[in-house]
Amino acid sequence: MERSIPENPVKSIVKGLLRPSYRRARKFVFERLPVLYRDGSRYDHIAAEIRRLRPGKIVEIGTCKGDNAERMLRLALWYRQADYYGFDLFEEMGPEKFAQETAIWPAPMELVESRLKGIKFRGRTPGVRLFKGDTTRTLRDAAPEIGRADLIYIDGGHSYETVRSDWENSAALCGPGTVVLIDDYPNWGVGPLVDGIDRSRWKVEIIEPGDFFHHSDPPLNCKLARVTMAK
Ligand SMILES: C[S@@+](CC[C@H](N)C(=O)[O-])C[C@H]1O[C@@H](n2cnc3c(N)ncnc32)[C@H](O)[C@@H]1O
Questions:
Q1: Worst-scoring range by mean pLDDT, 22-26, 111-115, 125-129, 193-197?
Q2: Residues 223/210, Cβ–Cβ less than 8 Å
Q3: In the sheet that 57-61 helps form, which strands lie side by side, from edge to edge?
Q4: From 93, 105, 193, mutation site for ligand 1 pocket: most ligand atoms within 8 A of C-beta
Q5: How many domains would you assign to the chain?
Q6: Among residues 106, 139, 184, 230, which one has the fewest Cβ atoms lying within 10 Å of its Cβ?
Q7: pLDDT tens profile 185-214
Q8: Does residue 55 line the site of ligand 1, with CB under 6 A?
């Protein structure tokens, strides 16, 4: 029989009492002092990139519920006006795609849109454009509207075909200063895609450390690959 060590009751009471204040403090820093916000995950690397780049045009492939979009936008708005272009299946996600893309279930597009358009920070509101549908189609169609992006975060479908298409369509949005971050390396289709990027045209760096998920089956290590134009 498995036996667990009971937690010290005083410690659990103190933890319980402090938790709401801790949550409030965290929320305050997230919303009002995004330059100081850290959560110890690989997303801190994206934040570091935003502090360095100060991007005016951000593209995210796989907006989902808008969690990371909000974090990126709050931080970007700290420095300047910023526009966000987000892509997801939103309501078009179905059980088949969900399995094929090893996906997370996205929120309805309208909800995400009002969440992101509702951000007001330092007298700035972000430009927000969301595109619903499969990125193998939507990203290519939106390219003329987007033009050259400063930061592109690829975190959509995980099948090789989709990540490859997302990378190829993102490459068309890149200029000399653009940074592309591809999430979830080296898992599913992401590993083969990143390993196959032409090193004579692109500089590819794997950002350490990633996040290790012990409880997924099999356990996963997710890292960001940073891709820029080779000099
Ligand atoms: C891991 S989640 C993105 C999480 C989000 N980037 C964040 O950090 O808050 C992946 C998203 O990609 C979307 N997705 C998966 N396959 C897709 C496809 N082929 N076209 C468009 N979106 C897709 C899913 O609906 C899901 O919302």
A1: 22-26
A2: yes
A3: 127-132, 83-88, 57-61, 151-154, 179-185, 220-229, 202-213
A4: 93
A5: 2
A6: 230
A7: 999 999 999 999 999 999 999 999 999 998
A8: no
Token pair listed for 10? 């005083």
pTM above threshold 0.90:
yes
Q: 24 CA to middle of ligand 1, Å?
A: 28
Cα separations (Å) of 91 from 67, 95, 112, 130, 155?
Answer: 17, 12, 12, 13, 17
Of all protein residues, the one whose alpha carbon is nearest to atom 16 of ligand 1 is 157
For residue 3, tell me if it sits in a domain. no
| Domain around 19 | 8-37
**Residues 27 and 44 reside in one and the same domain:** no
Q: 43, 101, 164: which to mutate for ligand 1, most atoms within 8 A of CB?
A: 101
pLDDT, greater one: 16 or 134 = 134
Q: What percent of the chain is modeled with pLDDT above 90? A: 87
* Ligand 1 center from residue 75 Cα (angstroms): 21
**Does 107 lie in the same domain as 16?**
no
Residue 123 and residue 14 in one domain = no
